[in-house]
Amino acid sequence: MAYGSPRLRLAVLSAIGLFGAVMATGWWLNQPTGWGLVDVEIEAGLSARAIGAKLEQAGVVRSGRYFAYLARYRGLAEELEAGNYRLDRGYSTDQVLTNLLQAPLELIRVTVPEGLTRLEIAAVFQGTGMADSARFVELSGDDALVAELGIAASSLEGYLFPETYFLPPDIEEEEIIRHMVSQFFEVFEDSMFVRLDSINLSLHEAVTLASIVEREAMAQEERPVIASIFHRRLALNRRLESCATVEFSLGVHKKRLTNEDLRVQSSYNTYLHRGLPPGPIGSPGKASLDAALNPLQTDYLYFVARGDGTHQFSRTNRDHELAKHAIRRQERRRQAGVK
Q1: Which residues pair with 167 in a beta bridge?
Q2: What's this model's pTM, rounded to 2 decimal places?
């Protein structure tokens, strides 16, 4: 029996080869990407293609396009629902698609404000019933975990990024901590690491400075100005004299510090010690990190709170003292009811 002309045989062999290549590619695209769980939020209105792109970006599937093709092929593209899902990188794309058809996770919303210490953050999570504060504090100061997360410090103070998180109710304390530190490194971009050399600070020093700016500044526009004052004081080898570092040393927030407070014996008391304290005094947000890395160029050396969330900035100690006296007079007049 003849098998046809050589051209026909070549075409048949080519078709077989192409079919095999397509099958091999499909097999590879369907394979797991690795291991570990990933939380993915699927917003309402996303197409299968858009969901696939999001899953590919999260490292859950090898190809978002293949995911979308599979969803359409199985007739499931219109059945994918919005929600929060916990997906396993150890599953094939076909399995991931099946898992997305299950009910989404009921996540708990937790907001961690900027500037909180790790003790205060632990209390926030305990207040939601999601964590034991003592366990959280213990883990955030565990040498092995701190080192594993790439932090050159004695604790994770300053690296538990303040953010609004959506977390499953059964999450463990260590998972929360890992998630928050991962978010810190998401925010602290490559360009920010490059900027460290320009200001002659290490990552830990920059985060420490940003944490002080976070606790001192309330008005957004003042952060780069306050940062510039601390940079100037560091360059001049002058004490930072930050009230926020004294409060951290005392372990309490006070409306007004006394002279005795300013003499508290602590390596974090920048009224007594020159330079930056040993580490952050809380978790700075992105705005304060940006300010610490990109301070305004000013000739200010002093600032005093006006009492309304803003500060009076001064170039000389004489002007600073005059500003303090003027603000105190205004405060006494307010308290006396004098307009």
Answers
A1: 108
A2: 0.75
